[in-house]
Design goal:
Helices cover 60% and strands 0% of the residues. With 350 residues, the protein is mainly alpha-helical. The protein has one domain. Helix 2 crosses helix 4 and helix 7 crosses helix 10. The longest helix has 32 residues.
């Protein structure tokens, strides 16, 4: 019988412990699986494309189309047909529609500044931020002024409106003067055909929607998206801004966020109104209609076109843009005719 030596006993105990410990070690190894690495959440969706709702694009195109035609009116009238054509161009705006178009057109001009657009889009880095920003922008016009180049964008908005308004006013003055100059021509004293019909057409245009040329609509849409730039450059404009310029800047900021979508057009409609300008244009229209109601010969229609249709309208739009009309020249004084000197004989004392 073999005897267990201490060394052999130690070996047997270690072997038994190793055998017994194998299942536990295997279980421990199996429990130490590599940790599951979760993928990072996807980045928030980027802002939508820069642009304006279709309805506002139509408004901007209608304003642009009207201004191009009205400014192109020449005081060199040659016959009754040329007066009738000018009448058609002049009467073709409705005050509220023209205001909406001017705001939308100025907003497109403000979008031409890339630094302003980039600054707004950078701030709106999540859908939640963009939604909050739209609320802030609509509620407070001053909020937009915190973005880079907001004063440059405001200058572009004013530049899109002001010079045209001044040009319309100047054309109106020239046409107004033509009403007096044209009276030397016999045809200008002939009574306008269908007096009641031309008044009814003017009144109907004041309450309807303005039309726009399809090519102008396409151009405004491309300009709003940044595909093509408007031919506009301007110096920065410091606040405070007129309501029309401020609304244009607010609308441009929302368009830069990609939040000026067709489904949001009703929410943004508050930015398309300028009550003071609408009232001014409404008064000009009423004066235009009252003038037509009593005008009969062609030269009187020319007066109505120049004074109330163009000149007054231009003055309203210039004020809305925040630009000053040129000062009226001082009246020329009558020529001075010196009185003949009166000579008195001297009295001599005797």
């Amino acid at each position: 019988m073999r005897m267990f030596t201490p060394r052999r006993a130690l070996f047997l105990v270690g072997a038994v412990g190793l055998i017994v410990g194998l299942p536990a070690a295997d279980s421990l190894a199996r429990s130490r699986k590599p940790p599951v690495v979760e993928a990072p959440p996807p980045p928030p969706p980027p802002p939508g494309p820069v642009g304006l709702p279709d309805r506002m694009i139509q408004d901007a195109a209608a304003y642009d189309s009207y201004m191009k035609r009205a400014i192109a009116i020449t005081p060199a009238f040659t016959d009754a047909a040329s007066v009738s054509q000018a009448m058609g161009y002049t009467r073709a705006y409705a005050p509220k529609s023209l205001v909406r178009g001017a705001v939308a057109y100025a907003a497109i001009a403000a979008l031409q500044d890339p630094a302003f657009v980039a600054s707004v889009r950078e701030a709106g880095n999540t859908p939640e931020h963009r939604q909050d920003m739209v609320g802030y922008i609509v509620a407070n016009p001053a909020y937009v002024q915190y973005f880079k180049d907001s004063n440059v964008a405001a200058g572009l908005a004013q530049e899109a409106l002001g010079p045209r308004a001044l040009r319309l006013h100047a054309v109106g003055k020239a046409v107004h003067q033509a009403a007096y100059d044209i009276q030397r021509q016999g045809w200008s004293k002939i009574e306008v055909a269908d007096l009641n019909g031309r008044l009814a057409a003017a009144e109907a245009a004041a309450s309807g929607e303005m039309s726009s040329d399809p090519d102008v609509v396409a151009q405004e849409k491309q300009s709003a998206s940044g595909a093509t730039a408007l031919p506009t450059a301007a110096a920065p404009l410091s606040p405070p801004y007129t309501p029309m310029v401020a609304h244009a800047l607010q609308l441009a900021a929302i368009a830069a966020l990609g939040e000026a979508r067709n489904e949001n057009v009703d929410q943004l409609s508050v930015l398309m109104a300028d009550n003071d300008t609408s009232a001014c244009l409404g008064a000009a229209k009423r004066n235009f209609h009252q003038c037509l109601a009593v005008a009969k010969p062609n030269y009187e229609d020319i007066f109505c076109i120049g004074q109330h249709g163009l000149q007054d309208t231009g003055a309203c739009l210039a004020d809305a843009a925040g630009v000053l009309l040129p000062p009226e020249p001082l009246p020329i004084p009558p020529p001075f005719t010196p009185k003949p000197a009166v000579h008195h004989a001297r009295r001599h004392k005797a």
